[in-house]
Amino acid sequence: MSQGERRHPAAASLAGMALALSLVESATPAELRERGSRILRDSQGLAWVECLYLEGSGRWLGSDASEARLACDDFRHPYAHAIRSGAPLRLGLVEARSRLDHPDFQAQVAALPAAMQLEVRPLRALDGAREWLGILAFAAHPTALDGLHRDGGFAAFESLLCQLWARLSRHQGERHREARLQQSLAQLNDGARRQALSERLAGDLLGGSPAMQALRGQVVRAAETGLAVLLQGETGTGKDRVARAIHRLSTRSDKPFMAINCAAIPEALLESELFGHAKGAFSGADQARAGLISQADGGTLFLDEIGDMPLALQAKLLRVLESGRYRPLGASEERCADLRLVAATHQPLRERIRDQRFRADLYYRLGQFPLSLPPLRERREDIAPLAEAFVVDFCAREGRDEVGITPAALRQLRERDYPGNVRELKNLIDYACAMTRPGDDIAPMALPDQAEPETPEPAGSHAGDNTTRAVGDLRQALREFEAELIRQRLLHYDGNRALAAESLGLPKRTLAHKCRQLELDAK
Ligand SMILES: Nc1ncnc2c1ncn2[C@@H]1O[C@H](COP(=O)(O)OP(=O)(O)OP(=O)(O)O)[C@@H](O)[C@H]1O
């Protein structure tokens, strides 16, 4: 130290300002890490310095210099120990070499002199949620490490590094989200590609009605964006199928698709299913467990029956959507969430908002891209192609010869109301296939619980009414039902046996035979 410096101690401390400035001028977290490492190497004479960042999911440490990723639970590596304990660790290289046999770590420290020590310091933000940022590791002779910690210089350096890092990554996160949104909006204009995708989707989301064509177009658009999608439609309209299609067509398709039905799980369990929990978070939590938000990392999370999500959880979900951060149950640290959310409901959410059972802010956040699925009764032209596809599915599934559908059966199918929508149609076809001999065609008689909108309903047609309860002889009841049905049908077709037979999916001769058998007075 020169005489001048001794006389003016302030000049000595101001010398550090240049280094601090170099850190402050970093434009990105990666640049900051690079500059920070360089300062330690050059000005403190450390032999080896490395600074890794903790990935958003909190499960990996990543390096700016290579593609390498290090699992935070791989305890063959000293970084995993430091991250897990949340405290700095220092150990001799000889000990480290013998105890920690991670191949990358071994390769990194192989060339360093055995007398050196390694110090690994987990770094965390000093403000707000105080989340973990990453790790700073360096090696030097013990005297150099002791010297480093002797005055407050290193502590100030580390504190500045952490503050800048947290601020830069927050800005970067915001910028990324904005850029993704911009990109999403720009992609909305790419017409030809969308058309091709929409046609591809027609093999999966069946139906040629204008409503289904429009829906497929919207699914393609939604998939191109990163926006949250809210699917609204009656039960069985295909919300689950649409959610999966959105994931499959999106850039996240190679990452997981995780789904949960919010109505099917008790409130306490739903929270830990979604957010995961730390070890010991509640009695019985012997192990830490990743929640669906973590498991869907990089992919899509599908929340079915979102209308049934308890209010307290709605608030937490909103926070995930707005900040991209969440905290597992019982955990002290926050995690980053990188997922696309698709939510579905069959309930009118606006009513639930009015009844204060659903948060309006969450509703608008979930519905960045709202999609409405039309009920089957409003697109009757889709019934025949759906029914035919379900017949093919059934036969393939059961390994049976193909069956067809008679025009009369198709006509009846088209006339039904389907409160259970496509699911009801599918179940009905499965039943009808099972009731039809392989190689035959499905006839109207094979359709369960037949409703006849044009003719008065035959007695005993509804399960559970008084007539069915009174049945004491099944064969006799079926004979009566059959006779009544044929009588009604003949009446309806003015005694024309050919038309009545076709409407019932029967050959004319069979109907004539049945009329004789049942002693029906047919004209
Ligand atoms: N457009 C379609 N093309 C082919 N199959 C469909 C279509 N829509 C629905 N399905 C089938 O109908 C059944 C019900 O669909 P899905 O489970 O997606 O409905 P949902 O709206 O999610 O029902 P819920 O609200 O009861 O959960 C499934 O077997 C699904 O494969």
UniProtKB/TrEMBL annotation:
Record has Nucleotide-binding as a keyword: yes
Transmembrane stretches, start-end: none
Gene3D superfamilies xrefs: 1.10.8.60, Homeodomain-like, P-loop containing nucleotide triphosphate hydrolases
Domain of life: Bacteria
Domain called Sigma-54 factor interaction: residue spans: 205-434
InterPro entries: AAA+_ATPase, AAA_lid_NorR, Homeodomain-like_sf, HTH_Fis, P-loop_NTPase, Sigma_54_int, Sigma_54_int_dom_ATP-bd_1, Sigma_54_int_dom_ATP-bd_2
UniProt-listed Pfam families: AAA_lid_14 (PF25601), HTH_8 (PF02954), Sigma54_activat (PF00158)
Chain spans, region Disordered: 444-467
Protein keywords: ATP-binding, DNA-binding, Nucleotide-binding, Transcription, Transcription regulation
Entry protein name: Sigma-54 interaction domain-containing protein
